[in-house]
Design brief:
By secondary structure, this protein is mainly α. The protein contains six helices and no strands. The chain is about 70% helix and about 0% strand. The mean pLDDT is about 85.
């Protein structure tokens, strides 16, 4: 398996396209939360749709902002220092299982898709911030043994 050692424009562009499509789906689903309630519509379902919709749209905006910062870095509009100082991906707020249970299966799957995308971007952000240093677990263990032996000697 080939490991990425840096972000590249094609990676960012592919993720950006994926995020835009997903954000459009999110907008279409959660736009229903701003309409008047239908006759007989459960208030708890509307509340769940509203709160989970807010979390989901916020998650997507964080992902898109991170990707836009990376695109700006590639185009020279931002420096690497600026992105490293101010472009971190915010932590995600997990969905509430009780509220998810009130939503339609398609809506739950859409929310899960946004959570998975956020997790992927978070892994990339962490790796990028660590400059893609891939420490070997065996090397880390050897270093630890060396430090312990150094203390004894």
């Amino acid at each position: 398996m080939v490991r990425t050692t840096n972000l590249s424009r094609p990676i960012i562009e592919a993720l950006y396209t994926e995020a835009l499509v997903l954000a459009d789906e999110v907008r279409a689903v959660f736009a229903a939360g701003v309409r008047e309630p239908l006759t007989g519509e459960d208030a708890f379902v509307r509340l769940a749709l509203s709160t989970e919709g807010l979390k989901t749209t916020t998650r997507m905006m964080h992902v898109l902002a991170w990707l836009l910062n990376q695109r700006a870095l590639f185009s020279g509009e931002l420096s690497e220092t600026q992105v490293r100082l101010h472009g971190a991906l915010p932590a995600d707020r997990a969905s509430d299982a009780g509220q998810l249970a009130l939503l339609e299966p398609e809506t739950r799957e859409l929310i899960a898709d946004t959570e998975r995308l956020h997790q992927r971007i978070a892994r990339l952000d962490d790796a990028w911030r660590g400059r893609f240093e891939m420490a070997s677990p065996a090397r880390a263990f050897q270093d630890r043994i060396g430090r312990e032996l150094g203390r004894l000697g």
